[in-house]
Amino acid sequence: MTATQSPEWFLSEREVVGLLGLTAKRVAQLRRLGLLKPEGEGYRFREIVGVRVARELLAGGATVRQVRRALEDLRRLLPQAEAPLAELRLKVDGQHILVETDGVSFDPRTGQTVLTMDVGDLERQARATLVRGMVRPLVTPSLRAEVWLARASELDQDPAQWEAAVAAYEQVVATDPTCAAGWNNLGLLHHRMGHYDKAGACYREAMTADPACYQAAYNLGSLTEDLGDLPGAIGWYRRALELSPDYADAHFNLAGVLAKSGRAPEAAIHWRRYLELDLESPWAELARVNLGEAEETVE
Questions:
Q1: Neighbouring residues of 10: CB distance < 8 A, sequence distance ≥ 6
Q2: If I label 156, which of 32, 145, 189, 211 is the partner at 20 to 30 A Cα–Cα?
Q3: Is the CB of residue 180 less than 8 Å from the CB of residue 215?
Q4: Pairing of the two strands 96-101 and 89-93
Q5: How large is the C-alpha radius of gyration of the chain?
Q6: Helices (H), strands (E): how many in the chain?
Q7: Residue 129: other Cβ atoms inside 10 A
Q8: Are 264 and 297 in contact (CB under 8 A)?
Q9: Is the confidence at residue 190, as pLDDT, over 50?
Q10: CB of 179 within 8 A of CB of 170?
Q11: Count of other CB atoms within 10 angstroms of residue 101
């Protein structure tokens, strides 16, 4: 694979169903259309886009029969297309599915242009667009980022796949620089791999993309703690709690850093709050012990 190529990847049907929020009814309809494959086969990106387009057509009022007919017509028009629904811009217009290109609509069954010149028809089209929206299979950055994010999240569970996960998260933020989750998760992966400068830069990008991203603030606290900057860690953990006051892990880590800084009374407050929030946690016993030590120090 060259530096300019994206890694080849597939999503499972379960991942596609989750990504697109498909209901059981919609899954059954898409299976009847042949857009959902036999179990065990993966989905390439453009195939996922095709499934998404069919979902939107069905949601916009098209029947399974209409979508099937449109698929047949598009396959005739685009015989080489791997996912014909992903190649053209479609819309539901009454009893028909039309193709729209360069502002002109045509019927894929006949290839004839559909004229819409009178004001009344324009008004009806405007209302239809507001009610149903127009299906735009041209891939939006947000959808592409969501697909890469789903793939990256799967890869980062396996340390052997971390390099591939980094590449996938980089695709997320290159596609959608405002994706705070992508920046945060990329930073966390760099953090685990010991790339501390990169991790800090990614966490800060996440905070820039979404100033309310408390996970990124927490991770900056963890990073600065790992680097031995206890005052900095305290500041970031407090920032995470300003954004999410019941974030149990931030209370736990803040308590630990305060204790290491000789601030036992403050540490006790956060140990106690952690136990209120996450009493059944595997770390609860350690929190109880530390709380007891902090209370003894106060006494």
A1: 42, 43, 44
A2: 211
A3: no
A4: antiparallel
A5: 26
A6: 14, 4
A7: 11
A8: yes
A9: yes
A10: no
A11: 9
Task: Break the chain into its structural domains and give their ranges.
Answer: 13-132, 141-298
Contact status, residue 112 vs residue 106, Cβ threshold 8 Å: yes
Residues 172 and 145 sit within 8 Å (Cβ to Cβ) = yes
Amino acid at 250: A
Residues in the chain: 299
Quick one: tokens of 136?
């735009």
Token pair, residue 108, equals 């894929």
pTM attached to this predicted model: 0.58
Q: Hey, what are 284's tokens?
A: 């609860």
Q: Which residues are CB-contacts of 103 (< 8 A; sequence separation ≥ 6)?
A: none
| Per-residue pLDDT tens digits for 140-154 | 456 567 777 877 887
Distance CA 298, CA 113 (A): 83
138: pLDDT strictly greater than 70:
no
Q: What is the CATH number of domain 141-298?
A: 1.25.40.10
CA distance 222 to 257: 10
Task: Give the separation between CA 49 and CA 14, rounded to whole angstroms.
Answer: 15
Residue 126 is encoded by which pair of tokens?
A: 């405007």
User: What Cα–Cα distance (Å) separates residue 259 from each residue in 20, 229, 233, 295?
Assistant: 46, 14, 13, 11
User: Are 135 and 60 a contacting pair, CB within 8 Å?
Assistant: yes
